[in-house]
Design goal:
4 domains; 13 helices; 12 strands; 52% helix
Protein backbone atom coordinates (compact mmCIF):
# COMPACT_ATOMS: atom_id res chain seq x y z
CA UNK A 1 0.00 0.00 0.00
CA UNK A 2 1.37 3.40 -1.01
CA UNK A 3 0.34 6.94 -0.30
CA UNK A 4 -0.74 9.16 -3.16
CA UNK A 5 -0.47 12.89 -3.78
CA UNK A 6 -2.45 15.32 -5.91
CA UNK A 7 -0.16 17.78 -7.69
CA UNK A 8 -0.38 20.45 -10.37
CA UNK A 9 2.10 19.66 -13.14
CA UNK A 10 2.22 22.06 -16.05
CA UNK A 11 -1.37 23.11 -15.41
CA UNK A 12 -2.64 19.51 -15.36
CA UNK A 13 -4.04 17.89 -12.18
CA UNK A 14 -2.01 14.71 -11.60
CA UNK A 15 -2.52 11.95 -9.03
CA UNK A 16 0.82 10.29 -8.26
CA UNK A 17 2.19 7.89 -5.64
CA UNK A 18 4.94 9.02 -3.28
CA UNK A 19 7.80 7.01 -4.84
CA UNK A 20 7.03 8.31 -8.31
CA UNK A 21 6.67 11.84 -6.93
CA UNK A 22 10.12 11.73 -5.32
CA UNK A 23 11.72 10.49 -8.55
CA UNK A 24 9.89 13.15 -10.58
CA UNK A 25 10.93 15.88 -8.13
CA UNK A 26 14.59 14.86 -8.35
CA UNK A 27 14.38 14.88 -12.16
CA UNK A 28 12.79 18.34 -12.33
CA UNK A 29 15.21 19.69 -9.69
CA UNK A 30 18.15 18.42 -11.77
CA UNK A 31 16.78 20.19 -14.84
CA UNK A 32 16.17 23.39 -12.88
CA UNK A 33 19.73 23.35 -11.52
CA UNK A 34 21.15 22.77 -14.99
CA UNK A 35 19.30 25.68 -16.60
CA UNK A 36 19.34 28.07 -13.63
CA UNK A 37 21.86 30.38 -15.35
CA UNK A 38 19.72 30.63 -18.49
CA UNK A 39 17.45 33.61 -19.03
CA UNK A 40 14.73 31.21 -20.19
CA UNK A 41 15.03 28.78 -17.27
CA UNK A 42 11.48 29.36 -16.07
CA UNK A 43 9.95 28.91 -19.51
CA UNK A 44 12.05 25.79 -20.22
CA UNK A 45 10.97 24.18 -16.95
CA UNK A 46 7.32 25.12 -17.58
CA UNK A 47 7.35 23.56 -21.05
CA UNK A 48 9.05 20.41 -19.74
CA UNK A 49 6.47 20.07 -16.96
CA UNK A 50 3.65 20.49 -19.48
CA UNK A 51 5.14 17.84 -21.74
CA UNK A 52 5.66 15.44 -18.82
CA UNK A 53 2.03 15.89 -17.79
CA UNK A 54 0.88 15.18 -21.36
CA UNK A 55 2.94 11.98 -21.42
CA UNK A 56 1.40 10.87 -18.13
CA UNK A 57 -2.11 11.53 -19.46
CA UNK A 58 -1.37 9.50 -22.58
CA UNK A 59 0.27 6.53 -20.85
CA UNK A 60 -1.77 5.91 -17.68
CA UNK A 61 -5.14 5.41 -19.40
CA UNK A 62 -7.33 3.73 -18.18
CA UNK A 63 -5.53 4.03 -14.81
CA UNK A 64 -5.73 7.28 -12.86
CA UNK A 65 -2.56 7.16 -10.73
CA UNK A 66 0.96 7.83 -12.00
CA UNK A 67 3.43 5.21 -10.79
CA UNK A 68 7.21 4.81 -10.93
CA UNK A 69 7.25 3.00 -14.33
CA UNK A 70 5.24 5.89 -15.81
CA UNK A 71 7.77 8.44 -14.53
CA UNK A 72 10.74 6.41 -15.76
CA UNK A 73 9.10 5.97 -19.18
CA UNK A 74 8.55 9.73 -19.44
CA UNK A 75 12.14 10.39 -18.36
CA UNK A 76 13.43 8.00 -21.03
CA UNK A 77 11.42 9.90 -23.63
CA UNK A 78 12.40 13.38 -22.45
CA UNK A 79 16.01 12.40 -21.81
CA UNK A 80 17.88 11.70 -18.58
CA UNK A 81 19.75 14.62 -16.91
CA UNK A 82 23.19 13.18 -17.67
CA UNK A 83 22.35 13.24 -21.40
CA UNK A 84 22.32 17.05 -21.47
CA UNK A 85 25.15 17.58 -18.99
CA UNK A 86 23.31 17.60 -15.65
CA UNK A 87 23.98 15.36 -12.69
CA UNK A 88 22.35 11.92 -12.67
CA UNK A 89 19.39 11.41 -10.37
CA UNK A 90 20.04 7.69 -9.83
CA UNK A 91 22.34 6.46 -7.10
CA UNK A 92 24.12 4.06 -9.41
CA UNK A 93 26.83 5.52 -11.67
CA UNK A 94 26.13 5.60 -15.37
CA UNK A 95 28.87 4.58 -17.78
CA UNK A 96 29.56 6.39 -21.03
CA UNK A 97 28.37 3.37 -23.00
CA UNK A 98 25.06 3.40 -21.13
CA UNK A 99 24.75 7.14 -21.75
CA UNK A 100 25.19 6.64 -25.48
CA UNK A 101 22.72 3.76 -25.46
CA UNK A 102 20.12 5.83 -23.60
CA UNK A 103 20.71 8.81 -25.82
CA UNK A 104 20.21 6.70 -28.92
CA UNK A 105 17.00 5.23 -27.51
CA UNK A 106 15.53 8.52 -26.29
CA UNK A 107 13.93 11.33 -28.19
CA UNK A 108 10.24 10.81 -28.78
CA UNK A 109 9.13 11.72 -32.31
CA UNK A 110 5.35 12.17 -32.19
CA UNK A 111 4.88 12.77 -35.90
CA UNK A 112 3.88 16.13 -37.31
CA UNK A 113 0.81 17.86 -35.95
CA UNK A 114 -1.10 20.70 -37.54
CA UNK A 115 -0.80 23.98 -35.62
CA UNK A 116 -0.98 27.68 -36.42
CA UNK A 117 2.49 29.18 -36.16
CA UNK A 118 2.34 32.40 -34.08
CA UNK A 119 6.04 33.17 -34.59
CA UNK A 120 5.90 33.53 -38.37
CA UNK A 121 2.48 34.93 -39.08
CA UNK A 122 1.03 37.76 -41.11
CA UNK A 123 -2.60 37.19 -40.13
CA UNK A 124 -3.34 34.03 -38.19
CA UNK A 125 -0.33 31.81 -38.77
CA UNK A 126 -2.31 29.37 -40.94
CA UNK A 127 0.04 29.52 -43.92
CA UNK A 128 3.18 29.15 -41.83
CA UNK A 129 1.59 26.26 -39.92
CA UNK A 130 0.67 24.49 -43.15
CA UNK A 131 4.18 25.10 -44.49
CA UNK A 132 5.73 23.54 -41.38
CA UNK A 133 3.40 20.55 -41.59
CA UNK A 134 4.13 20.01 -45.30
CA UNK A 135 7.88 20.50 -44.85
CA UNK A 136 8.06 23.73 -46.90
CA UNK A 137 10.85 25.94 -45.58
CA UNK A 138 9.34 29.26 -46.67
CA UNK A 139 5.60 29.85 -45.97
CA UNK A 140 5.45 32.50 -48.68
CA UNK A 141 4.64 29.77 -51.21
CA UNK A 142 1.51 28.82 -49.24
CA UNK A 143 0.52 32.48 -49.05
CA UNK A 144 1.02 32.88 -52.79
CA UNK A 145 -1.12 29.78 -53.34
CA UNK A 146 -3.97 31.29 -51.28
CA UNK A 147 -3.73 34.54 -53.27
CA UNK A 148 -3.71 32.72 -56.63
CA UNK A 149 -6.69 30.55 -55.64
CA UNK A 150 -8.59 33.64 -54.51
CA UNK A 151 -7.93 35.44 -57.81
CA UNK A 152 -8.95 32.28 -59.70
CA UNK A 153 -12.36 32.33 -58.04
CA UNK A 154 -11.88 29.52 -55.53
CA UNK A 155 -13.30 29.78 -52.02
CA UNK A 156 -9.86 30.12 -50.46
CA UNK A 157 -10.83 32.89 -48.03
CA UNK A 158 -13.60 30.84 -46.32
CA UNK A 159 -11.21 27.87 -46.25
CA UNK A 160 -8.58 30.07 -44.59
CA UNK A 161 -11.12 31.25 -42.01
CA UNK A 162 -12.22 27.68 -41.26
CA UNK A 163 -8.60 26.58 -40.84
CA UNK A 164 -8.01 29.58 -38.59
CA UNK A 165 -10.89 28.41 -36.36
CA UNK A 166 -10.09 24.69 -36.42
CA UNK A 167 -6.28 24.70 -36.20
CA UNK A 168 -4.95 25.21 -32.65
CA UNK A 169 -2.15 27.69 -32.08
CA UNK A 170 1.29 26.36 -31.14
CA UNK A 171 1.57 27.84 -27.65
CA UNK A 172 4.39 25.83 -26.08
CA UNK A 173 7.80 24.74 -27.27
CA UNK A 174 6.52 21.15 -27.41
CA UNK A 175 3.73 22.29 -29.75
CA UNK A 176 6.25 24.02 -32.01
CA UNK A 177 8.45 20.93 -32.09
CA UNK A 178 5.45 18.70 -32.86
CA UNK A 179 4.45 21.15 -35.61
CA UNK A 180 7.79 20.52 -37.32
CA UNK A 181 7.88 16.80 -36.46
CA UNK A 182 11.02 17.14 -34.34
CA UNK A 183 11.81 14.99 -31.27
CA UNK A 184 10.36 16.34 -28.03
CA UNK A 185 12.85 16.06 -25.18
CA UNK A 186 14.62 18.33 -22.71
CA UNK A 187 17.41 19.23 -25.11
CA UNK A 188 15.10 20.10 -28.00
CA UNK A 189 12.76 22.12 -25.75
CA UNK A 190 15.70 24.10 -24.36
CA UNK A 191 17.01 24.76 -27.88
CA UNK A 192 13.55 25.82 -29.03
CA UNK A 193 13.12 28.26 -26.14
CA UNK A 194 16.60 29.71 -26.74
CA UNK A 195 15.79 30.14 -30.42
CA UNK A 196 12.53 31.90 -29.55
CA UNK A 197 14.36 34.30 -27.24
CA UNK A 198 16.92 35.03 -29.94
CA UNK A 199 14.19 35.69 -32.51
CA UNK A 200 12.39 37.95 -30.05
CA UNK A 201 15.61 39.87 -29.41
CA UNK A 202 16.15 40.30 -33.14
CA UNK A 203 12.61 41.64 -33.56
CA UNK A 204 13.19 44.17 -30.78
CA UNK A 205 16.46 45.29 -32.37
CA UNK A 206 14.79 45.58 -35.78
CA UNK A 207 12.03 47.77 -34.41
CA UNK A 208 14.02 50.01 -32.08
CA UNK A 209 17.67 49.78 -33.09
CA UNK A 210 17.54 50.13 -36.85
CA UNK A 211 15.24 53.11 -37.29
CA UNK A 212 18.13 55.27 -38.47
CA UNK A 213 18.66 53.14 -41.55
CA UNK A 214 17.21 54.39 -44.80
CA UNK A 215 14.53 51.76 -45.23
CA UNK A 216 13.95 51.16 -41.57
CA UNK A 217 10.93 53.38 -41.00
CA UNK A 218 8.94 52.09 -43.96
CA UNK A 219 9.75 48.49 -43.04
CA UNK A 220 8.63 49.03 -39.44
CA UNK A 221 5.46 50.80 -40.56
CA UNK A 222 4.61 47.99 -42.98
CA UNK A 223 5.26 45.40 -40.29
CA UNK A 224 3.13 47.29 -37.77
CA UNK A 225 0.33 47.74 -40.30
CA UNK A 226 0.25 44.03 -41.10
CA UNK A 227 0.48 43.13 -37.41
CA UNK A 228 -2.40 45.49 -36.58
CA UNK A 229 -4.50 44.00 -39.38
CA UNK A 230 -3.66 40.52 -38.14
CA UNK A 231 -4.68 41.51 -34.62
CA UNK A 232 -8.05 42.77 -35.85
CA UNK A 233 -8.66 39.60 -37.85
CA UNK A 234 -7.52 37.50 -34.91
CA UNK A 235 -10.02 39.22 -32.60
CA UNK A 236 -12.82 38.71 -35.14
CA UNK A 237 -11.92 35.06 -35.68
CA UNK A 238 -11.76 34.39 -31.94
CA UNK A 239 -15.19 35.97 -31.53
CA UNK A 240 -16.62 33.93 -34.40
CA UNK A 241 -15.08 30.73 -33.04
CA UNK A 242 -16.52 31.39 -29.58
CA UNK A 243 -19.97 32.03 -31.05
CA UNK A 244 -19.78 29.07 -33.43
CA UNK A 245 -18.47 26.59 -30.85
CA UNK A 246 -21.95 25.39 -29.76
CA UNK A 247 -22.96 25.02 -33.41
CA UNK A 248 -19.79 23.07 -34.18
CA UNK A 249 -20.41 20.80 -31.20
CA UNK A 250 -23.98 20.21 -32.37
CA UNK A 251 -22.69 19.47 -35.87
CA UNK A 252 -20.10 17.07 -34.45
CA UNK A 253 -22.78 15.31 -32.39
CA UNK A 254 -25.00 14.95 -35.46
CA UNK A 255 -22.10 13.52 -37.48
CA UNK A 256 -21.40 10.97 -34.75
CA UNK A 257 -25.10 10.04 -34.64
CA UNK A 258 -25.19 9.59 -38.42
CA UNK A 259 -22.09 7.38 -38.37
CA UNK A 260 -23.40 5.23 -35.51
CA UNK A 261 -26.84 4.83 -37.11
CA UNK A 262 -25.23 3.96 -40.46
CA UNK A 263 -23.07 1.29 -38.83
CA UNK A 264 -26.01 -0.22 -36.91
CA UNK A 265 -28.15 -0.18 -40.08
CA UNK A 266 -25.41 -1.98 -41.99
CA UNK A 267 -25.14 -4.71 -39.34
CA UNK A 268 -28.92 -5.17 -39.02
CA UNK A 269 -29.41 -5.21 -42.81
CA UNK A 270 -26.69 -7.82 -43.18
CA UNK A 271 -28.21 -10.06 -40.49
CA UNK A 272 -31.76 -9.77 -41.86
CA UNK A 273 -30.62 -10.26 -45.43
CA UNK A 274 -28.61 -13.37 -44.58
CA UNK A 275 -31.53 -15.01 -42.77
CA UNK A 276 -33.77 -14.51 -45.80
CA UNK A 277 -31.26 -15.55 -48.46
CA UNK A 278 -29.18 -18.20 -46.74
CA UNK A 279 -29.10 -20.29 -49.92
CA UNK A 280 -26.68 -17.75 -51.41
CA UNK A 281 -24.12 -18.54 -48.72
CA UNK A 282 -21.32 -20.92 -49.66
CA UNK A 283 -21.07 -24.31 -48.00
CA UNK A 284 -17.82 -23.16 -46.37
CA UNK A 285 -19.48 -21.23 -43.55
CA UNK A 286 -16.15 -20.58 -41.79
CA UNK A 287 -14.77 -18.77 -44.84
CA UNK A 288 -17.97 -16.80 -45.19
CA UNK A 289 -17.88 -15.81 -41.51
CA UNK A 290 -14.26 -14.69 -41.91
CA UNK A 291 -15.12 -12.62 -44.97
CA UNK A 292 -18.19 -11.05 -43.37
CA UNK A 293 -16.32 -10.25 -40.15
CA UNK A 294 -13.49 -8.75 -42.19
CA UNK A 295 -15.98 -6.59 -44.09
CA UNK A 296 -17.44 -5.28 -40.84
CA UNK A 297 -13.93 -4.38 -39.62
CA UNK A 298 -13.00 -2.75 -42.94
CA UNK A 299 -16.03 -0.47 -42.67
CA UNK A 300 -16.27 -0.18 -38.89
CA UNK A 301 -12.65 0.76 -38.10
CA UNK A 302 -12.68 3.90 -40.32
CA UNK A 303 -16.09 4.86 -38.90
CA UNK A 304 -14.71 4.57 -35.36
CA UNK A 305 -11.67 6.58 -36.43
CA UNK A 306 -13.93 9.33 -37.77
CA UNK A 307 -15.86 9.36 -34.50
CA UNK A 308 -12.63 9.75 -32.50
CA UNK A 309 -11.48 12.53 -34.86
CA UNK A 310 -14.79 14.35 -34.44
CA UNK A 311 -14.52 14.05 -30.65
CA UNK A 312 -10.98 15.44 -30.79
CA UNK A 313 -11.75 18.34 -33.15
CA UNK A 314 -15.19 19.42 -31.93
CA UNK A 315 -15.14 18.37 -28.28
CA UNK A 316 -11.38 18.59 -27.49
CA UNK A 317 -11.36 15.00 -26.27
CA UNK A 318 -7.88 13.61 -26.74
CA UNK A 319 -7.47 9.85 -26.89
CA UNK A 320 -4.49 7.67 -26.23
CA UNK A 321 -2.36 6.83 -29.23
CA UNK A 322 -3.11 3.15 -28.55
CA UNK A 323 -6.65 3.77 -29.82
CA UNK A 324 -5.36 4.89 -33.22
CA UNK A 325 -2.94 1.99 -33.58
CA UNK A 326 -5.63 -0.42 -32.39
CA UNK A 327 -7.98 0.83 -35.12
CA UNK A 328 -5.21 0.53 -37.71
CA UNK A 329 -4.54 -3.01 -36.50
CA UNK A 330 -8.24 -3.90 -36.65
CA UNK A 331 -8.49 -2.51 -40.19
CA UNK A 332 -5.47 -4.56 -41.31
CA UNK A 333 -6.95 -7.62 -39.59
CA UNK A 334 -10.23 -6.97 -41.41
CA UNK A 335 -8.39 -6.67 -44.72
CA UNK A 336 -6.66 -10.04 -44.25
CA UNK A 337 -9.86 -11.66 -42.98
CA UNK A 338 -11.92 -10.34 -45.89
CA UNK A 339 -9.25 -11.37 -48.42
CA UNK A 340 -9.06 -14.86 -46.90
CA UNK A 341 -12.83 -15.27 -46.94
CA UNK A 342 -13.14 -13.93 -50.50
CA UNK A 343 -10.42 -16.30 -51.74
CA UNK A 344 -12.04 -19.31 -50.07
CA UNK A 345 -15.51 -18.38 -51.35
CA UNK A 346 -14.10 -17.92 -54.86
CA UNK A 347 -12.60 -21.42 -54.64
CA UNK A 348 -16.06 -22.75 -53.79
CA UNK A 349 -17.12 -21.96 -57.37
CA UNK A 350 -13.98 -22.97 -59.28
CA UNK A 351 -15.22 -26.33 -60.70
CA UNK A 352 -17.84 -26.67 -63.47
CA UNK A 353 -20.20 -29.52 -64.30
CA UNK A 354 -23.21 -30.23 -66.51
CA UNK A 355 -26.22 -32.52 -66.32
CA UNK A 356 -28.04 -33.45 -69.54
CA UNK A 357 -31.57 -34.81 -69.97
CA UNK A 358 -33.87 -35.25 -72.95
CA UNK A 359 -37.46 -33.97 -72.82
CA UNK A 360 -39.69 -35.93 -75.26
CA UNK A 361 -42.06 -33.95 -77.47
CA UNK A 362 -45.16 -35.39 -79.11
CA UNK A 363 -45.18 -34.46 -82.79
CA UNK A 364 -47.95 -31.94 -83.55
CA UNK A 365 -50.64 -33.10 -86.00
CA UNK A 366 -51.17 -30.91 -89.09
CA UNK A 367 -50.01 -27.81 -87.18
CA UNK A 368 -46.61 -26.18 -86.93
CA UNK A 369 -44.89 -26.28 -83.53
CA UNK A 370 -45.18 -23.07 -81.53
CA UNK A 371 -42.45 -22.00 -79.09
CA UNK A 372 -43.49 -19.54 -76.40
CA UNK A 373 -41.55 -17.91 -73.57
CA UNK A 374 -43.45 -18.21 -70.29
CA UNK A 375 -42.78 -15.26 -68.01
CA UNK A 376 -43.44 -16.50 -64.49
CA UNK A 377 -42.78 -13.35 -62.48
CA UNK A 378 -45.27 -10.57 -63.13
CA UNK A 379 -43.92 -7.12 -62.38
CA UNK A 380 -45.89 -5.18 -59.78
CA UNK A 381 -44.04 -1.92 -60.14
CA UNK A 382 -40.89 -3.82 -59.18
CA UNK A 383 -38.59 -6.23 -60.97
CA UNK A 384 -38.47 -9.35 -58.79
CA UNK A 385 -36.14 -12.22 -59.68
CA UNK A 386 -36.27 -14.23 -56.44
CA UNK A 387 -39.24 -15.76 -54.61
CA UNK A 388 -38.83 -17.67 -51.34
CA UNK A 389 -41.35 -20.51 -50.87
CA UNK A 390 -41.79 -22.99 -48.02
CA UNK A 391 -40.17 -25.93 -49.80
CA UNK A 392 -38.16 -24.31 -52.59
CA UNK A 393 -36.66 -21.14 -53.94
CA UNK A 394 -37.95 -19.81 -57.24
CA UNK A 395 -35.26 -18.03 -59.22
CA UNK A 396 -35.92 -16.00 -62.34
CA UNK A 397 -33.41 -16.81 -65.08
CA UNK A 398 -31.80 -13.73 -66.55
CA UNK A 399 -31.63 -15.23 -70.04
CA UNK A 400 -32.57 -18.54 -71.65
CA UNK A 401 -30.36 -19.81 -74.46
CA UNK A 402 -32.39 -21.81 -76.97
CA UNK A 403 -30.60 -23.45 -79.91
CA UNK A 404 -32.49 -24.82 -82.93
CA UNK A 405 -30.89 -27.83 -84.66
CA UNK A 406 -32.12 -30.16 -87.46
CA UNK A 407 -33.21 -33.63 -86.30
CA UNK A 408 -31.55 -36.20 -88.57
CA UNK A 409 -33.80 -38.97 -87.26
CA UNK A 410 -37.01 -37.02 -88.05
CA UNK A 411 -38.21 -36.76 -84.43
CA UNK A 412 -38.87 -33.73 -82.24
CA UNK A 413 -36.93 -33.63 -79.00
CA UNK A 414 -35.66 -31.07 -76.51
CA UNK A 415 -32.22 -31.55 -74.96
CA UNK A 416 -31.88 -29.74 -71.64
CA UNK A 417 -28.37 -29.08 -70.29
CA UNK A 418 -28.16 -27.83 -66.69
CA UNK A 419 -24.90 -26.20 -65.59
CA UNK A 420 -23.56 -25.36 -62.15
CA UNK A 421 -20.36 -24.58 -60.28
CA UNK A 422 -18.89 -26.01 -57.09
CA UNK A 423 -15.84 -26.68 -54.97
CA UNK A 424 -14.97 -29.77 -57.01
CA UNK A 425 -16.51 -31.88 -59.77
CA UNK A 426 -18.75 -33.83 -57.41
CA UNK A 427 -20.07 -30.69 -55.73
CA UNK A 428 -20.70 -29.02 -59.10
CA UNK A 429 -22.51 -32.11 -60.46
CA UNK A 430 -24.74 -32.19 -57.38
CA UNK A 431 -25.62 -28.54 -57.92
CA UNK A 432 -26.44 -29.19 -61.59
CA UNK A 433 -28.74 -32.14 -60.78
CA UNK A 434 -30.62 -30.76 -57.81
CA UNK A 435 -32.25 -27.69 -59.33
CA UNK A 436 -35.41 -28.11 -61.38
CA UNK A 437 -36.22 -26.54 -64.73
CA UNK A 438 -39.51 -27.69 -66.26
CA UNK A 439 -40.39 -26.87 -69.88
CA UNK A 440 -43.93 -28.03 -70.69
CA UNK A 441 -45.78 -29.11 -73.84
CA UNK A 442 -49.50 -28.48 -74.44
CA UNK A 443 -51.10 -29.27 -77.81
CA UNK A 444 -48.69 -27.92 -80.37
CA UNK A 445 -47.13 -25.31 -78.05
CA UNK A 446 -43.78 -25.67 -76.26
CA UNK A 447 -43.63 -23.42 -73.18
CA UNK A 448 -40.16 -22.27 -72.12
CA UNK A 449 -40.41 -21.02 -68.49
CA UNK A 450 -38.34 -18.11 -67.25
CA UNK A 451 -37.60 -19.61 -63.85
CA UNK A 452 -36.07 -22.63 -62.17
CA UNK A 453 -36.48 -24.09 -58.68
CA UNK A 454 -33.79 -24.74 -56.08
CA UNK A 455 -35.02 -27.19 -53.41
CA UNK A 456 -34.93 -25.96 -49.84
CA UNK A 457 -31.65 -26.89 -48.16
CA UNK A 458 -29.62 -26.61 -51.38
CA UNK A 459 -27.47 -23.60 -52.19
CA UNK A 460 -27.02 -21.27 -55.10
CA UNK A 461 -24.33 -22.58 -57.45
CA UNK A 462 -24.57 -20.14 -60.39
CA UNK A 463 -27.02 -22.52 -62.08
CA UNK A 464 -27.72 -22.00 -65.78
CA UNK A 465 -29.87 -23.72 -68.41
CA UNK A 466 -29.12 -24.28 -72.10
CA UNK A 467 -31.82 -25.78 -74.38
CA UNK A 468 -31.43 -27.35 -77.80
CA UNK A 469 -34.60 -28.04 -79.79
CA UNK A 470 -34.23 -30.64 -82.55
CA UNK A 471 -36.77 -30.16 -85.36
CA UNK A 472 -37.27 -32.55 -88.30
CA UNK A 473 -36.07 -31.21 -91.61
CA UNK A 474 -38.93 -29.49 -93.49
CA UNK A 475 -41.07 -28.75 -90.41
CA UNK A 476 -41.99 -25.21 -89.43
CA UNK A 477 -41.76 -23.33 -86.15
CA UNK A 478 -43.87 -20.42 -85.06
Amino acid sequence: MKQILNINLGGYPITIDTDAYEHLSKYLDAIEQHFRESDAAEEILSDIETRMAELFKENIHPRTIVTMPDVKSAVDIMGTPEMFGAEAIDDEPVSSGQKKQKKAASGFKPGKRLFRDPDDKLLGGVSSGLAAYLGISDPIWIRILFVVLTLAGFASIPIYMILWIVMPVAKTSADRLAMRGEPINVESIASSVAEELENFSEKINDQFGNKKKSGGRSKVKNTRWIAALGGIFSTVIIGISQAARPILKLLGGLLILVLVVSWISLVVSAIVGLTKAAFFLPSNTFAFSMGLGGLFLLVGAPIMGLILSILRVFFKRNHHVRWRWSLVGLWILGLFSFSFGAAKISNSYQAKSTYKQVVPIVAPQDKPLQVRYKKVFVANNDARSLLLQNDHIQFDVVSIRLNIEPAQDGRYRLVQVQKARGLDGEDATKGAKTFEYQPSFAGNTLLIPSDYFIPKGERFRVQKVELTLYVPVGEKLI
